[in-house]
Structure formats: structure tokens, C-alpha cells
Amino acid sequence: MKRNRITRTLIAGLAAAALALPLAGCGVDNAYTTNTVDALPDPTYTVSTDKPAWQSDTSKDNTLTWYVNADWWNKSFGNDLITKKIKKDLNVDIKFVTGDDTKLNTYFAGGDLPDVITVFDSTSRVAKAAANWSYPLQDLAAKYDPYFTKVAKQETLDWFRLSDGKTHGYPSYSNTSEDYKSGMIHTSQAFVIRKDVLAAIGDQDFTTPEGFIAGMKAIKEKFPDLVPFGFNDFSGGNSSLDTVLQNMLGVPTLSDDGTFYDRQMDEDYLTWLKALRQVHKDGNISDDSFADDGDTFKEKESTGKYATMLLTSFVGQSAPLQQWASNDPAGQYVAIDGIRSTKGRKPTLSETGLSGWTVSYITKQCKNPAKAIQIFTYLLSDYGEMLVNYGIEGETYTTNADGTVSWTPAADKIRLNDSEKWQKEYRMGEFVLFGHDRYKALNKDSFADAIKQFQEHNQQYLTPQYEIENIAPDAGTLEARSYSAITTKWSSTLVSLIRAGSDKQFDRLVDQYKTFLKNNDIDAINAIRNEKIKQNEKLLGE
């Protein structure tokens, strides 16, 4: 089970809500600024660029407090195969503390920080002010563990540089341009159809608006009990009918002059939304789809209720997709070419970018920064990544001649037959604070059989969208409030467009939305977006 991906999907709404919580500005901005790496004690071991420091540091009784800004994080340490090994290798005991933004605020307001802090939003006030309360990782590495620079990705370090020119936090699941080219990460976006439906409806062209409308009618005629077209729920935003549909159409992220491009008002995208309006009018999109939450959607997936679906984050839906595939192999979902640009653009299906997911920092009140940077190095190294994903070589996995890995027969038996033991005693693939998708790809069993064809079919369309990462206005600003209003308005407008009674009503709704944009200072928002796009391009060296 891909715990990290599932968890990311589940907490998307929570992360958005967290942006609205004010952080302890005074504590974040003003505390701990006098603490420097130069003032820290020298290492008690020999440092080397060729050997990770944890292999040289023989100190004992090291204890660190690590705060993770998520109540669901498993606080146990040293009780399972993986964290026992971490504890032994590093001679460290970690006390994990969890909470939410309120607890994080309390830390900064009180002036007493834990040794390590992990947050889930690299654009938050805490993250942006990290130079005031956390040590630069490059400086700690130079003093205590130069090997860090061999395992940390330079492109990721550059992306996370703050105004002081240093990198203070390191993310999990930060996909570099090298990762995108490697073939070891996959998109989680796809247009899929049941195999039995595909075989029964004859030759249908789902790539054009007209063909899509006709194809949905053909499905309804042959399979009246199915919902012809389904899509991810709207509970966390705009479903797969927003960004994923735009990616399927290859809608640009930037205008020709390099400025922000409003993908929602793209002519090609609106043409397809009009087609979906007709599909809805024909009775081939259920009104329930606009109200269903994530659990309801997955329940319908698990019973093959939808004939076709436009999916986002389908890795997080592996369980219901696999349940259906196992119960009815003839009806298993397969990815096909569908929903293509009317202007000849190729799909640009994306995945997590350089910003990654979690971001971890070593605070200026850390009692043992030498051991803390050793942990970062350890978990980022091939050795650490293989440990947290696959356990101990020879005991739980073996390495094949081609570099891939396989579970040992004993481990695989537990994995397949005793999920509780697998989670509690092995904790495989769960300790993800420095995780990365490329290691997951080393094992063919990392992903459910039901989604492997989706990944293979759409691999050719994987495209990073680094330039538009984190370009929304900063929380707490007037523009951020306007942006929030616009985002909410678009959610309701998108539903209304698909449910519109006619093309004329559709056009009126689009015009009303454009007016709403103007009335909510879209020019000021776009000016901020454009400035942040320039900053991103500078970080990318463009």
C-alpha cells in the first residue's frame, strides 16, 4: 500500500484549511536569530565527503524530539523492523510529537522548539521564515556531515533556497527533472474504461468532443445500469474535471510571453466543458457525482459502477480499483486514449514537482544538530531509502540482476496474508518523511495490478509543471482573500457549466465568471503569479 500517496490525498482538504490559520508571526520572525552554526561545538568524529558521518560517530545516548505537524503520524519509534534498524545504526532515540497548526503556533509563541520540525506546506509563514528559526542545511552538513551533499539533490536544494541564499528545509517526494526523465516515476492521471464496456460498444472515438458525446450514448444503450462517465469527487476542490482535464488537453501553463495563463478560460478546455454539458443533458453524467464524497466515489469504483472515469491520484484509489478487478476481471478498468485537444496539443500529465510533500527542518534549538543532520543524510541515502521501503536485504528483500528488488518468500507471505503484522512489526513504506517515488518503482509489487496498465499507458505524457508551483498569493494578504473567493467561485461555476441547460446559458456563466474575476482584483493576483513564476524560473536556472 502506498501510504504516503493515500495520506496526501486524504489530507488535501486539511492542508488547504491550515492556510487560513494565522501563525505566531512574532515567534517565527524574531526568535533564535542569534544562533549560528559557527557557534556550535566541533564534531567528536572525523568528517568526510566520502563516508556518511553516522558511520563514524560512536556517541551514545542520543535523543531527539521530532515534531510532525499531522495528528495521524505514527509516533512509535524503535518497535518495528525499520525504526529498530534506524535506532541501532544511528545510535539515536527519537521522540515523535504530533499536532496541528495550533500546536505549531504554541511552540513558536512559547519560544521552546523541538529539535526537528516537519510541516506539510512549503509556502506557509513558518516555512518562509525558516531562516529565523532553523539552521541552513548546507552549513550543518559542512560542519558535521559533508556526505549530505552527495545524497541531497542539488535541484531540490536550489528550489528550497530562502532569501539568505541557504536551504533550511528538505522535502520528501521532490521530483527533479532527472526523475521525470528516468521512467521511475509515474503520473496518477488517466481516462479509463471497463474492458467489457469497451468490447461491447464497438469502435468509438473518445478523443474528440463529438465522439465523446456519442460514445457515452453508446454506453448508455448497452449498459443502462451503469453511469457512463464518472470523475473524482468535488469534496477537496474541483475534482478531476479541473486540472486533470486541462492536462489531458495539454492546456499551456504559461502564455507565449512567459506570463501566467488562465487555463480555466482556455478555448479548448471550454469546448470540452461544453461537451460535458451535453453529456450531462443526455443523462450520462449523474448529478450524484457532484455531491458524492471521496468514500462514496471509491465505493462506486469498487463495484464497477462507472463505465468510464477521468481519474486523478489513482494510486490512492488502488484498493477499490483492485477490488473491482479481482471480483470481475472481464470488467477491469483500462486506460485508453480519450479527451484530446481540438488544437493538436499533446497531453501534459503531471505528478508531484520539486516542492514535494513534507518539509523537515533542524531548529536552532536542536540539542544535537550533528545527529540531526546525520538522520537527514541517512534517510536520503540509497541505504536509508531502501530500508524504509523494503527493510533489510536478505531478510525481507533481495536485489535482482537488473537492479530491481523482490520480497523474500517469508516477507511476501506476511505481506499478502497478515496486513496487521506487516504494518505494525515491519512498517514497510510508511516511514516516509524523506521518501521518494523512484525507490517505490524498484519493486513490481509496489503498485496494485489494477493500476499498472494506467501507468504504462500514460508514461509518455508525464510532464513537470515546475513553473507554476506555489504561485498563489501569500496567506494573509488581500490578494490571498480574493484568490480564495475566486477559487470558491470557480468550484460552483464549474458544476453550473456542466449542468447548464443550453450552450447560451453556458456562455452567460462564463461571462459572469470573467466579471467576477475582474471584480476580485484578478490583475493584482496575476501580477503576483507572474512575479513568482519569474522566481521559479530563476531557481530552475532558466
TrEMBL record:
Keywords: Signal. The keyword Signal applies. Residues 1-31 form the signal peptide. It comes from the Bacteria. PANTHER family: ARABINOSE-BINDING PROTEIN-RELATED, POLYGALACTURONAN_RHAMNOGALACTURONAN-BINDING PROTEIN YTCQ. This is Sugar ABC transporter substrate-binding protein. It comes from Bifidobacterium amazonense.
